[in-house]
Amino acid sequence: MRYIFSLFFLFIATLVYANENYPSLFSEQGTPLFKAADNFSKLKEYAPATSKVINYAKSVNEVKTLGFKADSLQEKKDIQNYLKSLRLLQKQHDEIIKLTIMELLKSIKEDNYKEFTLLADVSTNYFKDQDRLKE
């Protein structure tokens, strides 16, 4: 019975995550930014990043709304507003990544394992190309 429940739960979870809904316009730029909000949410309790993460989550919701509007109406002004909003969201994203890298390096210097694991868990995908962090 437990296995049936587990399979059912896995099936439902797969359906939920497979149906993530993002705007199709500029999806190569927008979708990774939207998905990063879930990853950054782990930093809400981390004091140096709390306000930036909360603002980022709000911005993601606003930009998604603009994206869906631009998708449906296909008006030039809506598309331009959406693109500008994506660029601003990218800047916020980059600021959070920069802060995370700086704090991660600080935690390494201070030998703070708890902080290191939190920051590394959040940002592993972004550090692949960072030679300083590979060392």
Can you offer a commentary on this structure?
The protein has 135 residues and is mostly helical. Helix content is 77%, strand content 0%. The chain is built from six helices and no strands. The chain has helices at 2-18, 27-40, 50-73, 76-109, 113-123, 131-134. The protein is elongated.
Tags for this model:
single chain; 135 residues; mainly alpha; 6 helices
SSE topology sketch:
Blueprint (H helix, E strand, L loop, with lengths): L1 H17 L8 H14 L9 H24 L2 H34 L3 H11 L7 H4 L1
Helix pairs in contact: 2-3, 2-4, 3-4, 4-5
Distance between the first and last residues' Cα: 48 Å
Per DSSP E runs of 2 or more residues, the count of β-strands stands at 0
Give me the strand/helix succession.
HHHHHH
CA radius of gyration is 18 Å
- Bin the strand percentage: under 5%
Regions with little confidence, pLDDT below 50 for 5+ residues: 7-11, 13-19
Largest sheet: none
Content-based structural category: mainly alpha
State the shape: elongated
Query: Considering DSSP H and I runs of 4 or more, what fraction of the residues is helical?
Result: over 70%
Number of DSSP helices? 6
Rounded mean pLDDT is: 81
Question: TL;DR of this structure?
Answer:
By secondary structure, the protein is an all-alpha fold.
